[in-house]
Design a protein that fits this description.
- The structure is a single chain.
- This protein is of the alpha+beta class.
- It has 36 helices and 32 strands.
- A hairpin with a 2-residue loop joins β11 and β12.
Length: about 1000
């Protein structure tokens, strides 16, 4: 090859080329982002609309359905999900990955503007935001101290939020807990009645009095003047002095109301218990710091932590900042462990090569191909905005053996020709040329299996794009190294003969004896055709039988990782207040504190998960000491805690070791336009799930909400008075929840001004009946205008693609796999005989698993087809590729056997490793087959060529296979702290098991099949 000849004749130029590649690769590595997982383009736009005082039913009809109708017609829309809850409607439009996020945002904004024309005027302007499934906080910071909730919230909102967002890479800061400031105008109901004043007119008058408007510009005497009209209040007290016009007379606000510098009605509260330092904070503010998609998670977290002492100095004395949850610490540990395993793999591979070759110079030549290929690949990865994450690092770990195999094939052939007496420079050129087709073929087989992987469209498939990209780039660089750097170094370093040691002689005798014994055993196999047939039939029989092991191997969608946390979500009786829920939270915290593994407890009262919110909900995170310091896993702790919490009356707890916000492992939907059928079916499903074994916990999103006071206007009265339902509802809502009548500005911040009746006037249900409704200057009480009854409202109304939906989410027990639980649910639904109007669909992770399994099945099939096409093209033969592809079932045997023996569950990572294995397993058969063809071309008989090619290449085959297995061994043994091990270990086991069986069987099955097919052709 010209490129090889150039490299050997210009060693300095070649050296400088690879030094440059290593230098620029190192520079790219230092600037590449570091994340736990690759960034995924999954555009999702959320529309949140507030209608104070509205029930879920009212919001569904008046807000949610209007937005759904407009948004559902957008292009590349995957699904529309909506939640109608008390006071709040949330509509989430999920788009396919091909959709541009900014384009989606603009389209949703346009549609919401159209929908607003049909919504009630009392709604607050919808908040439209981009959301992302991978947008998890980098850091969670807790602010606590001897200050009120209002002061803590103001510090977080006015000071800390600005400080954190100034740090390069921080895109958003979410604030949870604390108390928002609000200026309240509390109207005395009796005094307002005496004056004939209602809240709506009073509010409009106050808004008009507290307004500053532009009056235009005026030119005079060569100067330009701006005209400003009106004045805004300078203090909350000044609101009471505002004068409004009522019935033609001036009236000050303080004559009918009291102005209070107060807080908004709290909807949630945060607490934090630092068990390590024995401190409990019952009123804290939690700040979730979120990063830009391309930011380096680890570096950003370090920068934030370095700034914390500086930020803390700007806070009042006694107010402190702490970090209960640092996602970057786990990411850094996982990345460090993965890098450690890569380095150990390189070292072990080098050591194994020395045992095979016995020449340190050769080991150096071959081993240098790995770091050069890996480091150089960062040049391309940086240009493609890829990051250093679990996927890219796993691709490095899996590809160590593959990267070195090309150089092994080249160097072993060069040494063989040199030992036969050929000059080293000529041996380097001829040896490389002799194996060129085999090396290109093996590289091609590695690459073609990744092409379909890079084209996967499922959500999980998108995660593996960087995996496929990384291993492909590294493989291409390894090909360049094997054709240039390897022969060049061989021509320079192997010129002189080393003194033959006893160890060298031992190695030579060992491999000579091995080759001879192997040759004799192969001769016996080829002596009779039926022996080869029996071997092939036996191998296929074992392959088919090995699938029987699948019923003993668990299958989970994603690995179960111990991230030093246990997550608890709690439903308390409907109607529970924040205060009551807080008392329950303290009881639960006392139980959690009994576990010695718990170092901190973080509680949010008033919400759980991402969407459900309400005063009767709790979200508790128990932060554990590192997993290598405790005897029990977080799964064992979670199951023990679940048993204890289930014994508490009125508490429905869901406990998870792997997070709940991202969804439970198994979820399915019941959908129907017939709400009665949906209600009845979901009740039957819930009853069946309560009896089902293997479930740690489950929840359905059709739970009851608050107690409902139903006000039905009497049509004959409201019609005679020329009133509408809207008028009555507005009067009640204004009295209880108030009406926003403007903002108070202070130090550049704006605070809502809200007018409502004095809380004492509406403190119980009997007084609510007396809320006045002003009609033509005369007051009527609600009780006179309407019939009042009581009931229970829904906590939320859930739609998927505009259809009323009930979602069931299930947490299987630790000894029950995801696949087993799906089978149980399928049997349950089959036995349930649901009405035809009710449809059942998988959702969440279960839906992703179904979609990903279809995607992976197609990818696997396409990879095999592409392998066949590539090998057929290289061999210029339609039938011989089938002989080489028999290595694939051989590899599957080892995969299933080793996975079964190790007791490790299979998951999506295992399936990806199987696809990767396709390209690796076929390489040994290509090497033997290619040399066989060369010997036939030189005039050897078929029998001689078959025996000689196998004997000559057995050392290379064993070396490359052992290098691949040893390179991934550290991942299988979980070296390091163990962070991310559940992702790496299944892939390593698949690779090792598949390589072992495919190598052993390839040495006999492929030569015998080729011999029988070729012999039969010659006999014709």
């Amino acid at each position: 090859m010209k490129i090889t000849k150039f490299a050997i004749e210009r060693p300095v130029t070649t050296t400088m080329l690879f030094v440059a590649l290593a230098f620029f690769g190192a520079m790219a590595y230092m600037n590449v982002g570091v994340n736990m997982m690759p960034k995924v383009n999954s555009p999702s736009i959320t529309v949140t609309t507030v209608l104070p005082g509205a029930t879920p039913e009212e919001l569904e009809k008046n807000v949610t359905e209007k937005i759904e109708k407009e948004v559902s017609g957008l292009s590349n829309l995957k699904r529309v999900i909506s939640y109608s809850m008390e006071n709040v409607s949330t509509v989430q439009a999920e788009f396919r990955s091909s959709k541009n996020e900014n384009e989606a945002m603009n389209e949703v904004k346009e549609k919401v503007e159209l929908a607003m024309a049909e919504m009630p005027q009392s709604i607050e302007r919808p908040l439209i935001q981009k959301t992302n499934i991978a947008d998890v906080p980098v850091l969670t910071i807790v602010m606590s101290g001897n200050r009120s909730g209002k002061e803590l919230y103001d510090l977080a909102d006015q000071k800390l939020k600005n400080l954190f967002t100034r740090i390069n890479g921080v895109t958003k800061v979410d604030i949870i807990g604390g108390q928002k400031r609000e200026i309240k105008i509390l109207v005395d109901m009796r005094r307002a009645a005496e004056l004939g004043l209602d809240l709506t007119s009073a509010g409009e008058a106050i808004r008009a009095a507290n307004t500053k408007l532009p009056g235009g510009t005026y030119d005079y005497d060569g100067m330009n003047f701006s005209i400003e009209t009106g004045e805004e209040v300078s203090s909350p007290r000044a609101i009471g002095e505002l004068m409004i016009s009522h019935k033609g007379y001036p009236l000050s606000v303080r004559e009918f109301a009291v102005v209070s510098d107060s807080i908004k009605r709290p909807t949630n509260r945060s607490t934090f218990h630092d068990l390590k330092n024995d401190r409990y904070y019952d009123n804290v503010v939690t700040l979730n710091i979120r990063k830009e998609p391309n930011a380096n998670e680890v570096k950003l977290a370090r920068a934030i932590k370095e700034k914390l002492p500086e930020f803390e100095k700007e806070l009042p004395e006694g107010v402190t900042l702490s970090i209960p949850f640092d996602n970057s610490a786990y990411t850094e540990s996982a990345v460090d462990d993965a890098l450690l395993n890569v380095i150990l793999g390189i070292i072990l591979t080098g050591a194994i090569l020395f045992l095979f070759i016995g020449d340190y110079r050769t080991v150096i030549i071959v081993s240098i191909s790995i770091p050069i290929s890996l480091i150089a690949s960062f040049i391309v990865l940086k240009q493609l905005n890829a990051t250093l994450n679990m996927m890219t690092l796993m691709s490095f770990a899996v590809s160590i053996g593959a990267l070195i195999s090309n150089s092994i094939v080249v160097i072993e052939n060069i040494i063989r020709l040199k030992n036969e007496g050929m000059p080293i420079n000529q041996a380097a050129i001829e040896g490389t040329l002799e194996v060129t087709m085999a090396v290109i073929a093996s590289t091609g087989t590695n690459l073609v299996v990744f092409l379909p992987m890079a084209m996967m469209t499922s959500l999980v498939g998108v995660y593996f794009v960087e995996y496929a990209l990384t291993i492909s780039v590294a493989t291409v660089f390894s090909l360049l190294v094997s054709f240039t750097l390897t022969p060049m170094l061989a021509s320079v370093l192997l010129k002189k003969e080393l003194k033959v040691t006893k160890f060298n002689r031992f190695l030579d005798r060992f491999f000579e004896n091995l080759a001879e014994r192997y040759g004799r055993s192969l001769e016996k196999l080829l002596a009779k055709n039926r022996r080869g047939v029996l071997l092939f039939v036996g191998m296929m029989g074992i392959f088919i039988a090995s699938f029987g092991l699948l019923k003993f191997i668990d299958f989970n969608f994603m690995p179960k990782e111990d991230m030093n946390c246990v997550f608890i979500e709690v439903d308390l009786p409907a109607g529970s207040s924040l205060e009551t829920s807080g008392e329950y939270a303290q009881k639960l915290e006392k139980i959690i504190m009994q576990y010695p593994e718990v170092k901190a407890i973080q509680t949010v009262i008033g919400e759980k998960g991402i969407m459900p919110k309400g005063p009767n909900l709790l979200k508790i995170i128990a932060h554990l000491i590192p997993f290598y310091e405790r005897e029990r896993s977080n799964i064992q702790i979670a199951e023990s805690l679940k048993t204890q919490l289930d014994s508490i009356p009125s508490v429905k707890a869901l406990v998870s070791a792997n997070g709940i916000e991202g969804g439970l492992p198994i979820a399915f939907l019941l959908q129907s336009e017939n709400r009665e059928d949906l209600k009845a079916t979901s009740a039957r499903v819930e009853a069946a799930l309560l009896e089902m074994e293997g479930i740690s916990g489950f929840e359905a999103n059709n739970r009851n909400g608050n107690r409902l006071i139903r006000v039905i206007p009497r049509q004959e009265i409201v019609t005679r008075l020329n009133l509408t339902v809207f008028d009555v509802a507005t009067a009640i809502n204004s009295a209880i929840n108030g009406v926003k009548v403007g903002v108070y500005k202070e130090n550049g911040k704006e605070y809502d001004i809200r007018i409502s009746h004095n809380e004492g006037d509406i403190s119980d249900i009997s007084r609510i009946k007396n809320i006045p409704v002003l009609v033509n200057g005369q007051y009527y009480t609600v009780e006179r205008l309407a019939d009042i009854s009581y009931g229970i409202s829904q906590a939320q109304i859930y739609h998927v693609n505009k259809l009323p939906t009930v979602e069931f989410s299930i947490m299987p027990k630790d000894n029950v796999s995801d696949m087993e639980m799906q089978d149980k649910i399928n049997r349950l639904m089959a036995d349930l005989h649901a009405p035809k109007s009710v449809t059942v669909k998988w959702a969440g992770m279960a839906e992703d698993m179904d979609e990903s399994m279809r995607d992976l099945s197609f990818t696997l099939l396409l990879s095999v087809v592409l392998l066949y096409m590539l090998i057929a093209s290289l061999l210029e033969n339609f039938w011989h590729p089938f002989l080489l592809l028999t290595t694939l079932p051989m590899a599957i045997i080892g995969v299933l056997v080793l996975t079964f023996l190790s007791g490790t569950p299979m998951n999506i990572m295992s399936l990806i490793a199987i696809i990767t294995l396709l390209g690796l397993a076929v390489n040994d058969s290509i090497l033997i087959y290619d040399y066989n063809r060369q010997l036939l071309a030189r005039g050897n008989s078929l029998h001689q060529a078959t025996i000689q090619s196998a004997k000559t290449k057995i050392k290379t085959v064993i070396m490359t296979s052992v290098a691949i297995a040893i390179g991934t061994l550290p991942n299988a043994l979980e070296f390091g702290d163990g962070a991310g091990a559940t992702y790496r270990t299944p892939m390593a086991l698949v690779t090792i098991g598949g390589i072992i069986t495919s190598t052993i069987l390839t040495l006999y099955v492929v030569p015998s099949l080729f011999y029988m097919v070729k012999k039969r052709k010659l006999q014709r």
